[in-house]
Specification:
about 350 residues, alpha/beta, TIM Barrel, nine-stranded parallel β-sheet, 14 helices, globular
């Protein structure tokens, strides 16, 4: 199993990383993931205009000293503006700059951002050229894409035109989500498309192809590698509320026959991570915002609890900080840990 992966100047020691996740992958989530074995993390997609205009968005883009190596993911529609945004990320100390040509959210369609640029390959290529000219070889550049806008022949042609441009412009790699833009998150990720991509472009020197879509547990990471031949796997929704997936993946790196469930989190470990995540979130966002964010994280964490539906329902009802701590006391307290041990 290949472990060391070179992305331009950067080397990581595992073939997987935490994806950028809108509304989730902030500094707190990334730091928790790193403590559980994640070798590389991606920010939420940052809008070029927000960075250029400065203020709060620029402050939020600053990097915690412990949050390296880190990928700054940028989204925009104007080549000149997105190039300026990339230069800001380089100045802030990001280890890799990634251009988001994958986001399928409907509200960004009118502004031709994210995955919707796949239907305008010439504009997207102009963006790639502007970014490369602005950044040069200061840091590695990568791109996140979907396999196309839809299943049409035109969409496939546009994708390959753009993908070839990514290589021609000297980018260090591309991560491709196996769903189309119109699919959003409905239906399976087409791993066969990723395999065909590796078959066609996989021998390109100094260029990594990564895959994304339907990674729900540690085994899925290595299933994707085996099935498609990608060198990197993006762990997205499967790691929300589940930082242990990275620890379990490292176990499989050491021993492919190991059982990842042997590292399933105990009640004590779940409580510890929830508290740590909250403390980080509170430090970054303040008490009120942290309470709101940890409500949705708590809902995701609940799947690991022996009574997942009860815990999920309890987190859903959280309206304030006291409610959130009440759920932890009721479902993750010392008595709960003792009950679980007694049941074994």
């Amino acid at each position: 199993m290949p472990c060391m992966t070179q992305i331009g100047k950067l080397t990581i020691d595992a073939p997987f990383f935490q994806a950028g996740l809108a509304g989730y992958s902030d500094t707190a989530m990334r730091l928790v993931a790193r403590k559980h074995g994640c070798p590389l993390c991606v920010t939420e997609a940052l809008l070029d205009q927000f960075l250029i205009n400065g203020g709060k968005a620029l402050v939020q883009a600053e990097i915690d000293p412990d949050d390296h190596p880190i990928v700054g993911q940028l989204m925009g529609s104007n080549p000149e503006d997105i190039a300026k945004g990339c230069k800001i990320l380089v100045k802030l100390g990001y280890d890799i700059v990634d251009i988001n040509l994958a986001c399928p959210v409907k509200k960004i369609r009118k502004k031709a951002r994210g995955g919707h640029l796949l239907s305008e390959p010439d504009t997207a290529i102009d963006i790639l050229k502007a970014v490369k000219q602005a950044v040069g070889d200061d840091v590695p550049l990568t791109v996140k894409l979907r396999r196309g806008t839809d299943d049409s022949a035109v969409a496939t042609s546009n994708f390959h035109k753009l993908f070839q441009a990514v290589i021609d412009q000297g980018f260090a790699g591309a991560v491709v989500h196996g769903r189309s833009v119109t699919q959003k998150y409905i239906g399976p990720s087409r791993w066969s498309f990723l395999k065909s991509l590796v078959d066609e472009y996989g021998q390109t020197p100094n260029f990594n192809i990564g895959g994304s879509g339907d990674i729900w547990d540690a085994h899925d990471i290595f299933r994707m590698i085996a099935h498609t031949g990608v060198r990197l796997v993006s762990v997205a929704r499967g790691c929300i509320g589940n930082p242990w997936i990275f620890q379990q993946a490292r176990l499989l790196m050491d021993n492919p026959d190991a059982d990842p469930t042997s590292l399933a989190p105990t009640i004590d470990q779940q409580r510890q991570v929830l508290l740590e995540h909250f403390e980080l979130s509170q430090r970054i966002h303040g008490e009120r915002m942290a309470s709101l964010m940890m409500r949705k994280f708590g809902i995701k964490f609940s799947v690991h609890h022996p009574a997942p539906m009860d815990v999920k329902d309890a987190f859903i009802k959280v309206k304030c900080l006291d409610d959130w701590h009440g759920v932890l006391e009721a479902h993750y307290g010392l008595s709960q840990s003792q009950d679980c041990v007694a049941a074994l």
